[in-house]
Structure formats: C-alpha cells, structure tokens
Amino acid sequence: MKIIGYVCSHAGYAAADLAGEERLQYSPDIILIRLPCAGRIDVVHLLKAFREGADMLFVAGCLEGNCHHHYGNHEARKRVDQAKSILDALGMDGRRIEMFYLASNQGWKFKEIADEMMRRASELGPNPLEAKG
Amino acid sequence: MIIGEQKPLQEICAMLEGHQRILVTGCRSCVAICLAGGEKEVGILAESLRLHSDLRGRDWEVTEFTTERQCEKEWVRELSDLVAKSDAVVSIACGVGAQTIQALFPEVRVLPGLNTSNMGAPEEPGVFMEKCGGCGDCVLHLTGGICPIVRCAKGMLNGPCGGSQNGKCEIGHDTPCAWEEIYHSLERLGRLDLLEELIPPKNWLPSRSGGPRRIVRPEAVLTREEKEMRG
Amino acid sequence: MKAGSNLEKVLRDGRFAVTAEIGPPKSASAESVRRHAEEMRGCADAFNLTDNQTAMARMSSIASAVVLIEEGLEPVIQMTCRDRNRIAMQSDILGASALGIKNVLCISGDHQTFGNQKEAKNVYDVDSIQELMILRKMRDEGRVWSGEELEVAPRLFLGAAANPFADPFEFRVARLAKKVRAGADFVQTQSIFDMERFERWMELVRVRGLHEDVHILAGVLPLKSHRVALYMKNRVSGMLVPDAIVERMKAAKDPKEEGVRICVEQIEHLRSIEGVHGVHIMAPMWEERVPEIVRRAKLRPDARIE
Q1: Closest alpha carbon within chain A to B58
Q2: Pair type for strands B127-132 and B114-124
Q3: 3-state secondary structure at position B58
C-alpha cells in the first residue's frame, strides 16, 4: 500500500515526529511529504499523486482557528473536498483522500490518523489503476 | 463579466468518447475570475481527464493551454500548434471562446466544457450573482441602479408584483425582490418620484428578441483598401 | 358605459358588487365549469375564470368564460403576463370580445417555477400595468399598441389585482395609483385576513382619493381547515394570516363552519369600510360553499347577463 501524507511543518510533521519519539507504531506504508503549510497543496497535486499510483492520501494541518499561516488549513480543506468530488465523479471513491487537523504536541493523534487511513485502505482496496497495470 | 460553471466531469468525459488527443483550454478573463475556466481550472480538468483515461484504459493524450482571452482571433491563434496535434478541444472558456476556436480551426471538434450562464459580478468570494439583462436599452437611471429586467424574476418595469414579501421574491431561494431594492435605492437618492411614472411596454428589439445582435463602431471599421494597406 | 357588463352596471349603480372565482379544469371537458356554474348560480354579479393559476396548464380562461356565458352567467377573464406576449394578448382580447366577454383582469401571474412545467420559457413581454395600457388603448382608441387601427374596438371593463399585504407596504398604494392611471376600472384585492393592515391601506387609498377613481372589491377566502390556514400563512408569498385566525381555526370544533363564519364576519366588516365597493370571494376547491357564504352575509348579487 502507498499512503501519502501531506503534513504541514508546524503541526502535522511535528506531531509525526513526536509519535516517532514516543514509539507510537504506525504503518511503514505511510510516506510523509513535508510542506510549509497544508494550504500549499493544490488539487492538481492530489490528482497527480493518484495517477502515479498512490492508494490513499491525507493532508494534516493545524487545528481549526490555529493555522500558523492564518487560514491555510481552511484552504487545504476546500481543496481536499474538491479532490473528493472529482474522485467520486471518476468512480474512484472520495474516501481515498482525507483532511485532518491536529496540534504539534499530539503525537497520539498522528497515530490515530495513520491508523484510520490504513483501515480505510484495507476497506477500499488498492488504487484501481493498479489493476490496469 | 460573463459567469459560467463547468459541466459535470462525467458529461465532459462522455463528450470525449472516441477522441484521443485532447486539448483542454481556458481563458484568463471572465471565467478565471468566476473560478470556472482559468489556468488553475484547466490544470485540474486536464489531470482529471488523464485519471479518467488511465482508469478506463483510453490512452488519451491531454494537453493544456490557457489563452489570454478566448474571444479574439489574435489570442486564439496561439493555439495553432497544439490544435494541430489534437482531434478534440475542450474549452472551459465561455461559449464565445469555444465558438471562436471552432471558427478559427474548422477541422477540429470543439466541445464546450463550460455552461455559460449570465452577466454578473462577484458578491463575495465564491458567490457570483447575475446583474445585467443585456436588454440593449438600459433603464438603470429609472431604477436606482438596479436592473429590473434580470434581477426581477418577471422583468417587471412598474413596480413589484403581489408576491414580494419581506424583501424576497416569490420564487424563493432567498432571492431578493429587485423592486424592494429599487424602492430603497430611489428612496436613498430622493427620487421616489421615478416610481410614479408609467413605463410603457418595452422595445425588446435591441435584446435577444431582435435576433443575433451586431454592433458596429464605424470609426474603427476598415475599408478594403485600408485592410490591404495594413497587410 | 365602457363595456356594458353586468359587473360594470352594478358598480356604476352604487350597489355592493359580488364576484366569485372558478378554477378551470385540467381537462378537455368543460363539465366541471358547468357544474360550478350551477352550484354558484345567483351568488355573484360576475365570475372570475383563472388563467393557468400557479402556472399549471388548465383549460384557458377565455374558453371557460365562453362556457360560462353559455350557462347564462357573466365571466371575468384573467390574463397573466407570464404565458403571452403583447401580440397574443391583443389577439386573444379581440377573440374574447367577439365571443361576448367584457370583464378582463390584468395580472402578472405566478412565476412558472410554481407549476408543473418549470422548465418552460416564460414570456413577461409586458407587465400587468403595461397590459392595462394596451387594453385601454384598444378599447378607447380602437388601436393596437403600435397605433394601427382596429376595425371594431373591443368593449372592455378593465380590472387589476391589488395586494395590500405584499411589500414594500409604503409603495402598495402608489402601485394602485399607477394601475388606475394605466386604465384599471376595478381592482380585486388579495384575500384579506389581516384586517388591520387592510384598513391602513384603505386609509392611504382614501387620502389619495383613489377610492373615487377605481372600484375596489375586497378579496375574501373561506378557510377550510387549520392546515390550510397554516399553509396560507407560511407558504404563500404575499399573503398575511394573523395568528389569531390560525388559532381560531385550530381551536374550532367544526373547522369548516368556523372558516365560513370568519369569512362572513369579514364580509360584514368590509361592507362598512368607505371605498370598498364589493367583495371577491375565492373558494378554490370549495366552490359549493359560496352560496351559503353569500346568503349568510346577506349579499344580493344579480348574476343575470343581458
């Protein structure tokens, strides 16, 4: 499984780091991409990731109201929603992508996110493009 | 500006069945402002089409280009090279843009990716409202700057109908009653006297009713000689 | 006399006029029109035939009116602005007049999104005030709107609708004034439940002297049930139903009787208001109750046509 997490430096990446320090186990299938802010992601990036074989995507940004860059997390949410509708329209299932909010000191929450995405991955199965070869 | 909305993705994909080399093109003008057909939207649509193609084993080659404006031949000519390599063009510019491409490139199939809707303006981020009825005979001076032709659901010219209540139109959807707005605008301007005037039946010839409209600026028209002089 | 209709005579003679309403059927058979005509014979000086009310295709107002004339009753045709352009309006009026129709109510018409064919293209070439101007020109000048002469001018008694309960309230009397200047000989108001607001409107009407320029027929509608009262209150644009009336309907042991009683009380009160020259009784799908209302309110209409 290939699960890609776009994590913002301030919250997502810090929390992932903390999870590591606290020895909270999460799947090695998860690949993290660090961004200055969750709002840096664009719908095109998300779609491209699926075309290149990602099975699941998630975006992790600061808690609502707490974005280090004011409203980057809000923008990220809207773009994740847009990507979801496109995935649904294509029959790929919008649940393959999700938006999460957390704080830098919530290592446990990062693990929760990782576990949730793994659970969905086994429910939804691999990227339908895999079958095409 | 012209406001439109992209067609549902499935509808666009269905239109493209049988094609393979596809150019997605948008415009940096009106449709970019209403977030329907600008460069960003072109990128997203192109990527969506590539995903669709991969999922269904279609082998589509999807290219992208966003014209400065798609209603003018000079700008649309810039598409030449890409069009030469395509058998279909999906335009998410307005209907004028799509038609300009077809006129300039008669051999390639041009498909509308956008449902062109109306002439309006952004009210707040993400919300675009129809404002102008394009009737060809503007009466904004009589209605305190509010278009009764298109902002009133019945295009009334002599005041509100009996369905206006609490400032809302009878059609619902929280549509404001244009005549309530007109009343208050004229009140603020101290010109309620304008509402007492009987406005006679409108001449609809300058509107769509008169047929496709053609407007000429004689001072800019080139004679045959002038065209030759300019090459 | 502008048209010589029964309604015109009654109003000119200063008698308290009564009009009632018949909704044409969604049918190619006029049987229900004849049935309602029989039920309501003698109840009114003239009967409105609605025009594709709520934008649902029904037998046309003019066709139904012709049937009514065959039954010996006088019609008031209604012509909305939604489905016809000025050419069709003028054409239909010439035909209506040739067939003996004299009373015409000019109204905007419910938007077509109210009906069962929402996707239809609406017309709204002219609004109700412009419609009055056009019809008056046909009658008084014998010309179509563009000025060309008609061989024979139609004889029409022109009506309009008035809604004291719509907004903005401040403009509603000015709007009536415009309709009068455009050619309205009589108006029928929207159903009255908020008597206080109606009286306020009438006062402003009298201040402008409009009650002397146009015959005002006050609209009433008998409520059939508490549910109907709530529907009128919450779901009909431009209608105001005070809570007190809704409560009366809710508390009533016999709601139908209560609805009729309220209607009769309203009519009795309306007769006392200066400037009100008649009532317009609307009882959709309850036409059979109109004779009783007329009787209990002691109205004496004369529905015979000459």
Answers
A1: A132
A2: antiparallel
A3: coil
Residue B126 dihedral angles phi and psi, to the nearest 5°: 85, -5
Q: What is the pTM of this model?
A: 0.92
Rg, chain C, Cα only: 18
Task: For the domain covering C6-296, report its CATH number.
Answer: 3.20.20.220
The interface residues of chain B toward chain C in range 184-203, judged by CB-CB distance below 8 A, are 184, 195-196, 198-202
CB contact under 8 A, A50 and B52: no
User: Domains in chain B, start-ordered, CATH in brackets?
Assistant: 2-118 (3.40.50.2300), 133-210 (no CATH)
- Residue of B46, C14, C72, C157 whose CA lies nearest to A48: B46
Tell me, what's the ipTM? Answer: 0.92
Q: Looking at chain C, which residue has its C-alpha nearest residue B155?
A: C124
Strand residue runs (E) in B12-113? 21-27, 61-67, 88-91, 109-112
In a domain, A133, yes or no: no
Strands C75-80, B109-112: pairing is: unpaired
**pLDDT value of position C236:** 87
Q: Of the candidates B188, B178, B129, which has an alpha carbon nearest to the alpha carbon of residue B158?
A: B178
pLDDT tens, residue by residue, A2-37: 999 999 999 999 999 999 999 998 999 999 999 999
Assign B131 to helix, strand or coil.
strand
CB A93 within 8 A of CB A87: yes
- Rounded distance, CA C288 to CA C281, Å? 12
Which DSSP string do the residues of chain A spell out, in sequence order? --EEEEEEIIIIIHHHHHHHHTT----TTEEEEEES-GGG--HHHHHHHHHTT-SEEEEEEEPTT-BTTBSHHHHHHHHHHHHHHHHHHTTS-GGGEEEEEE-TT-HHHHHHHHHHHHHHHHHH-S-HHHHH-
